[in-house]
Amino acid sequence: MLWTLVVPLKPLAKAKSRLSDTADDGLRPGLALAFALDTAGAALACPAVKDVVVVTDDPRAGRELAALGARIVPDEPGGGLNAALAHAAAVVRSARPESPLAALNADLPALRPLELSRVLDAAAEFPRAFLPDAAAIGTTLLAAAPGRALLPAFGPGSRARHRASGAVELCLAGVDSVRQDVDTGDDLRAALALGVGPRTAAVAARLAAPGQ
Questions:
Q1: DSSP β-bridge partners for residue 5
Q2: Which of 42, 54, 78, 193 is spaced 20 to 30 A from 8 at the CA atom?
Q3: How confident is the model at residue 208 (pLDDT cuts 50, 70, 90)?
Q4: 28 falls in which pLDDT band (50, 70, 90)?
Q5: Full domain range(s) for residue 180
């Protein structure tokens, strides 16, 4: 089974504001883009993934992610994260209704293709399934089988909302790279400890003691 992944990315100038204690205004947009590029690159290298669709209105991000091999869908609703995901899911399903679909966070810079494959293989056993983030509060991946609505409910506390919506929580060991999203300086340090992709590593090297 080959999946289509939908990755939401807000305009870079507005991204990762909670990293202000680690990266200043001049570095945060580049850091957010590096996260997205490393996430998409790893996803595209995953043997269980057919393609990656990024929903964004950021011109620079769109250009660089398209050059990497991702398909870009404009954020036409402009209604926030879950509206963007629902829109992108509808675009994908209109062209390939038979494709299993998963929403994946754009801030997984340590993502490993084989760990992602394990998560998707596990998700394929259920109509809808999700993977909680490393903090066990949010969600990094939400999957839907062919013919099933994605019903995204991302945002603070999304683990509980996705569980309440009927999605099955995936309890897998050894998939830390798929769970480690980055919102804070502590998250970034945890991702760096796992080993991030080359673009994130290059930007992180410009931060003041990112591993401290």
A1: 52, 102
A2: 193
A3: low
A4: confident
A5: 3-204
